[in-house]
From TrEMBL:
PANTHER family: CALCIUM/CALMODULIN-DEPENDENT PROTEIN KINASE KINASE-RELATED (PTHR43895), NON-SPECIFIC SERINE_THREONINE PROTEIN KINASE (PTHR43895:SF123). This is Protein kinase domain-containing protein. It comes from Ceratodon purpureus (Fire moss). Keywords: ATP-binding, Kinase, Nucleotide-binding, Serine/threonine-protein kinase, Transferase. It comes from the Eukaryota. InterPro entries: Kinase-like_dom_sf, Prot_kinase_dom, Protein_kinase_ATP_BS, Ser/Thr_kinase_AS.
Length: 326
């Protein structure tokens, strides 16, 4: 990092104001000084990650994010590191959080909620087809871009910041369980895909109702209601929306609606157009490996050193063999 101007620089990025802050990370807006483009940079503290033994998990999650390239998912651009920090450079999304719309408008009209829900399912299903599960879909992770399209942030990075995870499960002391599937709370093992769909169902409900389907100040009462899927739909929900939400917020993950079934659902299909995008993903994991090594340069020169020693040994044995023959 350097500070040639009065702004901090990380590589070619000039850091700006903080967009959000969690337990392990800060997200900052930054400018690519070569292109003038904005990015969002997630800044992680290496010490904290080492202390919490999260190195392998974070490497795995960052690698996973590199596999995911979809128009409705925030794109990971690159990963960098200094001695003390890790910088995850992300596509910048400038429309704010989707749920700010609810704060301002109380709730969304059914057609608008459906559009965001279709985009959410498209992105979630794309990730599931690559064995990537979010496990913590919630409003803070849903952003809106300049074209009014949804962008999910932290897909594949769900093990990072905010959530205080050490065992892959959500800890209720660190976050709200309002969006979490009953089988996840149960802690008896769960399938990532069906659990993510439950969270999508809660999100759809909130978009259309303007409030949560399960909301209790007492945690035990909240869990009981989630386990029994004890909720009611407001009068303004259409019969089609009601039927679909009942199929998603089914406490039994084995009989809960799947994404494939969702695409056949009449309410879901209305006005649906699948996104067009280039599916090709080129992956280079060099930066991910370099992130936790002290210095990339040292790693390279060490490899170079090993090669030189090997060549020298080879040369020496060659000379010795020649001498013996003489
Ligand atoms: N907040 C968190 N991630 C963000 C992103 N990629 N763009 C804008 N704001 C964000």
């Amino acid at each position: 990092m350097n500070a040639t101007s009065n702004r901090l620089r990380v590589g070619k990025y000039e850091l700006g104001k903080t967009l959000g802050e969690g337990t392990f990370a800060k997200v900052k807006i930054a400018k690519n000084v070569e292109t003038g483009e904005n990015v969002a940079i997630k800044v992680l503290d290496k010490d904290k990650i080492l202390k919490h033994k999260m190195v392998e998990q974070i490497k795995r999650e960052i690698s996973t994010m590199k596999l995911v390239k979809h128009p409705y998912i925030v794109q990971l651009l690159e990963v960098m590191a200094s001695k003390t920090r890790i910088y995850i450079v992300l596509e910048y999304v400038n429309g704010g959080e989707l749920f700010d719309k609810i704060v301002h408008q109380t709730r969304l009209k059914e057609d608008e909620a459906r559009k965001y829900f279709q985009q959410l399912i498209d992105a979630v299903d794309y990730c599931h087809s690559r064995n990537v599960y979010h496990r913590d879909l919630k409003p803070e992770n849903l952003l809106v871009d300049a074209n009014g399209n949804l962008k999910i942030s932290d897909f594949g990075l769900s093990a990072l910041p905010q959530q205080c995870r050490a065992d892959g499960l959500l800890h209720t002391t660190c976050g709200t369980p309002n969006y979490v599937a009953p089988e996840v709370i149960n802690d008896k093992g769960y399938h990532g895909a069906t659990a993510d769909l439950w969270s999508c169902g809660v999100i759809l409900y909130v978009l259309m109702a303007g409030y949560l389907p399960f909301d209790e100040s007492n945690l035990m009462t909240l869990y009981r209601k989630i386990h029994k899927a004890e909720f009611t739909c407001p009068s303004w929900f259409s019969p089609g929306a009601r039927r679909l939400i009942m199929k998603i917020l089914n406490p039994n993950p084995k009989t809960r609606i799947t994404a494939a079934q969702m695409y056949k659902n009449e309410w879901f299909r209305k006005g649906y157009t699948p996104p067009k995008f280039d599916e090709e993903v080129r992956i280079n994991l060099d930066d991910v490996d370099a992130v936790f090594s002290e210095s990339t340069v040292r790693t390279k020169s060490f490899a170079w050193h090993v090669r030189c020693v090997r060549m020298l040994k080879h040369e020496i044995s060659f000379v010795r063999a020649g001498l013996r023959r003489q």
